[in-house]
Amino acid sequence: MQFNALRFEGKTEYIEYEGGTAEADVGQLILSLLDADFHPMLQLAKETERKLSACCGTEGITIGDRMQELETCPYYTAAAFSSAVKDYFKNNPHLLHLFAEQRVDYFRYSFDAEQEKLSYEGDVFDIVSDIAQEENWHYADWRINKLRELGDLCIRANILQKLIKEYPCYKKSLYGFEDVEDNTLSALAIRFVADVRWQLEQLITFQEEIETLLAYALDANGNLSELSVGQRYSSIPRTLINKYENAHSQLIVQSRITEGTAYIGYHSENLCTLAFFEFKYMCVNDIHVRRCARCERYFLPFSKISRYCDRLADLNTKKTCKDIAAMEKYSDKISQNEALALYRKRANAYQMRCRRAPSCYSHEDYEAWKERARGLLEQVNRGELSPEDFDMETQIPDAK
Ligand SMILES: [Zn+2]
Asked: How close is the Cα of 293 to the center of ligand 1, in Å?
């Protein structure tokens, strides 16, 4: 599986990244994108670009010379920027995996000429990794010579890829390249930062546009909620939908069948393309979103009566919108009525099952369930339990 891949299983999605798999509800990628604030990073990208532009077109400087100027060295600057982006998204793991892998992937997919050379000698990447390990330094000479045979392009793409991935511990990897001309490596560093800046700008535009897409097709309380998802999707302005439909063709579909697993994964070097694909998957599978009645941001409702999201609303008390809403009086009456109606409906359904299939549903279990549900209902009335949690806690158990 290539990095940066997304796959679905019913209402669950998986993100494959180097070193693991992250699991979440379908829709989480879009919601993570909507929650992220890309502006501080965009600002940093622009500042970094300005700083790097001073290093452009300097002839006769070697990698070794650059390494002496720690503060202004373009590849360290680019790698430090990449590290800062990664840190910034630490609290958003779903996004971090995709974004981090994407930056590493950049070197795999964005340089066609390099790509050819890299695939020509598949283990170049490993060679550079080996050089990075201090203990292998005494074996490094032949590897460096090998890289030089393959050409300058290989050297810089790999060096920068590793630097960006493992900065600052990879600084030493430049050992052995001190007398190599710096120009191309600096140019690559500049191009990398410019590309991330462009990606961030794209993501900011996407945030606005995906809100519109959701409002048209998937907002459970939206203006068009009476229509079918198909009808809703068709009413999205063509100019908007075409933009992402066209990008859609950049999606790489991969099937993986081994003894243990069989699935189809989707890969793209563009996060927006992946998120749009997730949006379409949600349309096809009728997975709706709703605006939280408290913070007004989109969330994935657990049930038809979910009105509040699970976002942390108060950093001090660690309370979510759902917790706060359950406590606040203004929502009590609605919550109580809804929870009571839900309780009655379920109690009737449960009782009916006991009558029709006594061997599967015992009367004792029903009584126990009823007593517990009543207790929980009391908690809702006291504002100690949200209606969503009540819903989750009082599901009728499966047949024996
Ligand atoms: Zn909320």
From this structure: 7
32-46, 89-103, 316-330: segment of lowest average pLDDT: 89-103
Contact of 6 with 13, CB cutoff 8 Å? yes
Instruction: Output the CA torsion 266→271→277→281 (10° steps).
Output: 90
Query: For residue 126, is pLDDT > 90?
Result: no
In angstroms, what is the span from residue 352 Cα to ligand 1's centroid?
37
In angstroms, the Cα distances linking 169 to 76, 124, 284 are: 11, 20, 45
Cα distances from 366 to residues 18, 120, 384, in angstroms, run: 48, 68, 24
Contact 7, 263 (CB under 8 A): yes
Q: Ligand 1 center to residue 35 CA distance, Å? A: 11
| CA 219 / ligand 1 centre spacing (Å) | 15
pTM to 2 decimal places = 0.71
Tokens of 335: 């919550």
Say how many Å lie between the CA of residue 295 and the centre of ligand 1. 4
Q: How far is the CA of 5 from the centre of ligand 1 (A)?
A: 29
The single-letter DSSP state of residue 399 is P
Name the 3-class secondary structure at 197. helix
Q: Supply the pLDDT for residue 96.
A: 73
The total of other beta-carbon atoms located within 10 Å of residue 176's CB is: 18
DSSP 181: B
Q: Give the H or E element holding residue 236.
A: none
In the reported structure, the alpha carbon of residue 312 is separated from the centroid of ligand 1 by a whole-number distance in angstroms of 8
- What distance in angstroms lies between residue 99's CA and the mean position of ligand 1's atoms? 25
Least confident of 92-96, 171-175, 179-183: 171-175
CB 51 within 8 A of CB 38: no
- Give yes or no for a contact between 12 and 23, defined as CB atoms under 8 angstroms apart: yes
